[in-house]
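Notebook, p. 212. Picked up where the previous page left off. The plan for this session was modest: take the two constructs that came back from the sequencing core last week, fold each one, and keep the raw output in the notebook itself so nobody has to go hunting through shared drives later. Recording the first one now, exactly as returned: residue sequence, then the structure token string.
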Amino acid sequence: MSARVILRTFGPFLRPQWPGCLLAGLLAVAGTGVALLKPWPLKYLFDEVLLPTDGSGGQDVQRILAMVVLALAGIAILDALVGAARSYTQAVVGERVAGAIRTKLYDHLQRLPLSYHERTPTGELTTRLTGDVDKVRALLTVTLVDAATNVLTLAGMAGVLLVLDWQLSVALLLVLPLLLLTVASFRARIRAVEEDSRAIEGDLAALAQESLVAVKLVKATGREDQESRRFRSRSDAAVAAVLRSARTSSAFGAAVDAVVAVAIAGLVWLGAQRVLAGALTPGDLVIFTSYLRDFFGPTRSLSKLPAQLTRAGVRAARIADTLHRRPAVQDKPDAQPAGRPQEKLSLDGVGFSYTPDRPVLQEVDLTVPVGSTLAVVGPTGAGKSTIAALLCRLQDPTSGRVLLDGADLRDLTGASLHAQVGLVTQDALLFRASVRENIAYARPDASAADIERAARAAQAHEFVQALPDGYETVLAERGATLSGGQRQRLALARAVLQGCPILVLDEPTTGLDARSEDAVLRALREVSSGRTTVIITHRMAAAMAADQIVVLDAGRVVEHGTHSSLLAEGGLYTEMCLLQGITGPLAFLNGTSGYGRHAAGSCESLPEHLATLKEEA
């Protein structure tokens, strides 16, 4: 990524900081002027005090010496003050720019589609928000500013040297092509090793995040040593990649320094010859050698700029790639606010696919009248969770429409829609905060009474009261100190407090034991009372009391009806009920929580079960 592209991408983050950028630029100019003044007192020291050509001495020499010493001290103090002011200004501008980039990147990540987050490791995204942003900050506010300062310094020195002795200046300029050739020979290698190093760094962060999130599984399976070896292997690869980058950078720096050293030696010899020939004074040679040293400092820095741009460009390209991705779900310019549901939420001929050749849903039609409960069931991979995402407009359908009272969700504003349709995910996501804060996540201003009412509705109040600090108990990360059923009931309480008239529950009983499942099912009955509810589940116990049940298979609706009517059909729904030990048409209503009169694993064969159920129905 070139400097021009970097500035075009990240320039908008610099514009609000233009006063600081202007001040840094003025300080850079002032610093250049001070740098040009540094050797001049030494010229007078040599020409007027140490090696005077007119034989002057006495008090004039002492006066000149005092002036030289004062000038040297004054220039040094001025240089320190200007340098400190410039460094602080750059730090202020840099941190503000980094904060703006980091905030914009995080905000953009929140709006990117779920498919992007599912494909990109969390550790990789964390690295972009931290290490990559820091590299770009350094590039924008240190590297490029220093480069501009170096250009000004070189221009000033070149002008002075031309006045002093044009022949030496021409000899000096002849060295520049050698530096450019050295830079060109290393640039491709630096880019390759930096890209490799950055990729391995992202993989290492992703591996660490993945292993730490799954630490319970690691411990339960006794894989600590294997995970340590796996991390050590990636860490060693990261170290090797960084060392390759360091070797390449060191070789590049050594090559540049060698060219500069040879050039300085040759030019000093040539300058000494000019002094011996009487074309220059000793003081002029002091200025020339001082500028020569300082000239090659900025030149060396500028010669390394392409390598620095390459390294930072790899990081900047990853940030730019994320920022240039457009969110899949956006409000239309003329989007209207969604009103409170009056009639129904429906899918009309909906199809969805992540890739054209692999459809997830095909021609799905379903309707949820206001105040009713719809259960969507089916085997794993049937497309159930995709329907949950579509109903909440976390995704837009590839074909067909999702409608709320006849209005396409794409014609409604996202904020107003999310106030009408709430989602409880199967992961029961909780934050490292108090129970009160977790329940009130969607309504931070909710009163303690409202929070407690929501917890009671979700059957969570009793176990919350039993926690060490009740509602003020701070949960571990992801609610790790709670059981699955407790986490799910807190998630339900959060949805209740949010107050959405439509509630979408995505696999609310997944992974729960019988007692926890029973507690969550009782909470579901309480929560869904008076609400429009869609239950996405593969657990028949959670579905059988719904007003209507839709059965999905391979992305299509294959059955639709009530629990009793679907059992009478003897199709996929009946088979799923039998596999879970649910056979009686009134099993749930009889208080058995889905465990009916015919237990799974009984002596009857599946066809015999189906025949019996048809007779009962």
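Okay, moving on. Second construct, recorded in the same format:
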Amino acid sequence: MSDNTQTGPVLAADGTPLKRSLARALRMQKMRALALIAPLLIFVLLTFILPIADMLFRSVENSIVSETLPRTTAAIQSYDADGGQPPEEFVFDALAYDLVVAAERKEHTRVGSRLNYENAGISSIFRKAGRKMDDMGEEYLDQFVALDKAWKKPATFVAIFADPDWAAEAGGDEEARFSYSDAAAEALPSATDAYTAWARTIQTQDGDTPTKEKPWAPIYMALYNDLVKNPDAPAAFSGESAALLSAAVTAIQSPDWKTMTTREAFADIDKDWLDPEVWRTIKTYSGKYTNGYFLNAADFQKGHDGPELRPELERIYGTLFLRTMIMSLAITMSCIILGYPVAWILANLPSRTANVLMILVLLPFWTSLLVRTSAWKVMLQQQGVINDVLVWLGIVADDARLVMINNQFGTIVAMTHILLPFMILPMYSVMQTINPSYLRAAKSLGATNWTAFWRVYFPQSVPGIGAGSILVFILAIGYYITPELVGGTKGVFISNRIAFHISQSLNWGLAAALGTILLVVVLGLYWAYDKIVGIDNVKLG
């Protein structure tokens, strides 16, 4: 008898090992499934994940100060912000060179607005400085030109500061980015830095060339400072450049040479530039990342010794967060109380009647949110429909009409009406699945109507209440149109403040921090609900 026992691997119909064939088939199946859901994944990524990531980043991002004022942020690090004195002269010099570039690029107002969020009034002194930066160093320009007309020519500065290779090719149709010479950078560091910043700025911003444009006045101021610190600087040059610089060194050592420090120039623009608090704010927010937005969102500020509470009259966000949570819970409870009977009636009526009534429940969805909110504004005001009816019935006096608008009551009433369908629909869908024979069985065993409802029916409807509550609560804390129109000053939510900072104050960093805190609070409440009730018990039918 022959032995037919197979010792090799099991083969598929095409001759490949069965295990490998099954793995390939499973892999292809997964790839097809991934291809089917790829559009949805991309949509969620672009419309949900990326915006949230951008919000989280904006809440700590602070690069505008360091990018707009690079020299200032580097120089100010050695400044004692708690010393009660403005910084040393070299910090003012750095700010002058930064601001003249920023003003040309129209960026000085942006950095001023950013710092104004932390110290009111800084924005105005940045605007003033931006308008007058072209004049800073004017007295040095006049004296250099009076010394020799060559100081008025662009070619003089190109010969001193430009790299010889760049200068040889300059003026072409596609002029290369300005490059400075190593000799100038070593002998005249501040002036080289200022001239390079000017040259590259006019190349990129205006499409001009340093070979044909006169330099800014602050460059003459920087040149003066360098020559004072290094009288031997002319030795690094040759020809006409060395002669001009040597003559300038001799001239600036004369008692007739007029000088003005950069600090004095800034003080002439606005005396607030000598305020130590201004410089402490610049230093505090000179990093690329900051926790300042989150501190502001929590009613704190950066103090001399670390975070400290803001003055009592400026603490608004804690109150708004607490009000948002309390009122959202009140709106959710109102929707449960009003929506549960409606959902029960709809679930226990004949289908034909229930469908007709369901149209009334869905009717608000066919009306604009703004129209519904405006209608409540008309009805709730003191000369509105509700007060007129109460006066007509004699319930309230005409001179004692109820104040139901521009307060928390008006917000709760209007938002309850708007969000009620979101509570009714989940409860109705769950109640439809409850078998009515359970109630009949409970009653046949001696239970009263209330006992049968509370012990049998209600526990089975809890998943619908949970689903509706989560939906209504999350929608409520994010609403801002309705509270804005009917809430007044005491009925607005934190979302109204977020919308204000996004659309009006343009403080996107603070808006992002407030939104991040709100997101964390919601996730925390969601986690607590899951631990207490169990998210698995939430059903939509």
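Notes on construct two before I forget. The chain is about 65% helix and 0% strand.
Flagging for discussion at group meeting.
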